[in-house]
Amino acid sequence: MDKILVTGGLGFIGSHTVVELQNEGYEVVIIDDLSNSSESVLDGIISITGKTPIFEKLDLKDKAGVEAFFKNHNDIKGVIHFAASKAVGESVKEPLLYYENNISTLVYILKELQKLPSAGFIFSSSCTVYGQADELPITENATVKQAESPYGNTKQIGEEIISDTCKVTPNLKAIALRYFNPVGSHETAKIGELPIGVPQNLVPFITQTAIGIRQELSIFGDDYPTPDGTCIRDYIHVVDLAKAHVVALNRLLQNKNKSNYETFNLGTGTGSSVLEVVQAFEKVSGEKLNYKIVGRREGDIISAYANTTKANEELGWKTELNLEDAMRSAWKWEQVVRKKG
Known about the structure:
Number of helices: 11
Structural class: alpha/beta
Number of strands: 13
Radius of gyration: 19 Å
Helix content: 40-55%
Distance between the termini: 37 Å
Order of helices and strands: EHEHEHEHHEHEEHEEEHEEHEHH
């Protein structure tokens, strides 16, 4: 069994990816600093898979700690790197926090991977690298625009760092997965999105509003040039997204990659507006959502959804779950979390 490191492995996408890796037979080591996650997520992973991943609490900004980790685990064959700060709005207010947390940690990990005989590296990138794309749906060849937020900029810079490193490191192979908007939770409702404090993402805010934790949902702007005036995004079920990470990792470990550094869009190929997401939730939950329209939010683009042809054809991956599946699972997860208190 190849040993795979998953940074941020107790987070939303990370935990679902750990489940899929363990289901595939990989030995998984998780690093997480628990700044936006909980150690209790381990229980959910173990319950689903029947396997216990190795877990180390570590802040990846601690360079010496990262070096010590790789000395102890010098048999790692691949890394899936999720650990990062990820809220667009917060990044506008706290740019230096985002640059330190998202860039320095990436550099420290890549320095350690350069020392290994060979390694596969999967980077958690984002469709934010495209900004407001000139054409929709967005292909991997779309121009990488000047970022609309420091968060988006860290993803652009991260991709450049990885690409540059791969050029001078023959033993390193990397894939940047540019994903659109992950939503939903595992069908068992044993793991899911568990934001600490006020949610920064739409769906947990919807479910927390429906269950009574939040008074109302704010929809940022209804005057965009879209059919209903609200922003359009490509909402991908987190389980589909997690499976794509495993497929991409297999590609690298089986030497099926076409170059040392590749990029793939991960989405459904369909755009849904904020109001359409609200309506999908109301349909599957039977709950009426309390929401209001407020002003636009700085850093938001109008519309983004993926052209998934490259991922479908080269990775042999495609989504299997839809928006209603995602909203149904997110609502089930929210109810389970609140019962636990």
